[in-house]
Write a structure and sequence with these properties.
alpha+beta, globular, 3 helices, 30% helix, 105 residues, GMP Synthetase, Chain A, domain 3, three-stranded mixed sheet
Length: 105
Amino acid sequence: MAEQQFTREQKIEIVRDALRHVIDPEIGLSVTELGLLREVQIEDDHAHLVMILTTPFCPYAPQLLEASRQKAQEALGVPTTIEVGPELWDPSMAEEGVLSDWGLF
């Protein structure tokens, strides 16, 4: 059976969907819902993610980053690295409506 080929855009969507299973334990929303995934670079033999955190002092940062890296790597089937980007998170980065329970939008 031939291996299915995905476009770059489809692979990015696969990563976003996989990261819906990585939940910020303090907020109770996924890193995708919160808009923390800022960049996905995909090559044939590896991938690289750039994420931000809701706060620079997030106590769960190491766990969130590693869980995100592992989920993306499992979904793509290639070694994946991750880094924290310099951008500061803002509630407007979250998916529309997900923060309404928080009274933010």
